[in-house]
Amino acid sequence: MTPPAASGDLGPGETVPSPAPRFAPGELVPWLSALDDSLPQDTSPLEGATLAVTAPEPGSPTRQTREPAPLPGFNLGFLEDQWDDDQASRHIGVEIRLLELDHAVFSLKITEHLVNGHGIVHGGYIFTLADTTFAYACNSRGLTTVAAGVDITFVQAAYLGDVLVADARVRANWGRSGITDVQVTRESDGALVAEFRGRSRQIPPKATPTALA
To answer: Which domain, by its residues, includes 160?
Structure first.
């Protein structure tokens, strides 16, 4: 076949002719047809179809699942020892109302030394009450647990003479971590003063003088 003329060889008004098609309309291109036959066919079920599940053959290895160890129960003695050493909470007047599994209630009467320059309760003391209650709820199983992080929202002010009540409940435990929510209310009318969420972490038991000897 004679090659088409180069564009430089064309005379005025002449154009390069289009090459004739190699395959007639509707004719399969041979290499595409062969490729189509060689491709793996999609045999996956349609959406909504039911897949057959076969039981493992006898003797075949099975995946071992590890069940989490059960948490211990309520340990009042552990909390009593913790309270005996809790100088900070007792110093500002925090009192125990209730201790039970994953739940604690503490109170604090607002005295003159807990009021700030605005004539309202210092937010740090509201935080301390909530944090203390959080500590006893998440330590109620006798596993030494400390705060990994906390958030607090102050909803409204409290004043001299008010009694604040903090109610802490453990919401979740996984591994060595946990979440505890605390509500701080005013006892006289039940008004919400603050919302607190604590993220806890279990740590090894504290070293005792005997253990260090």
So the answer is: 93-212
Domain assignment present for residue 64? The answer is: no
| Cβ atoms 147, 198 nearer than 8 A | yes
Q: What is the pTM (predicted TM-score) of this model? A: 0.66
Q: Domain holding 194: CATH number?
A: 3.10.129.10
**8 Å CB contact between 179 and 171:** yes
In the Cβ-directed half-sphere of 194, how many Cα atoms lie within 13 Å?
27
pLDDT of residue 178: 98
Residue 140 lies in a domain: yes
In a domain, 206, yes or no: yes
- Point out the residues of the chain with pLDDT beneath 70: 1-57, 59-68, 206-213
3-state secondary structure 14-39: CCCCCCCCCCCCCCCCHHHHHHHHHC
| Residue type for position 154 | F
The residues near 162 (Cβ < 8 Å, ≥ 6 apart) are: 109, 110, 121, 186, 187, 188
- Residue 115 included in any domain: yes
Listed in sequence order, the residues at least 6 apart from 147 whose beta carbon sits closer than 8 Å to its beta carbon are 131, 134, 135, 198, 199, 200, 201
Count of domains observed in the chain: 1
Say how far apart CA 124 and CA 147 lie, in whole Å: 16
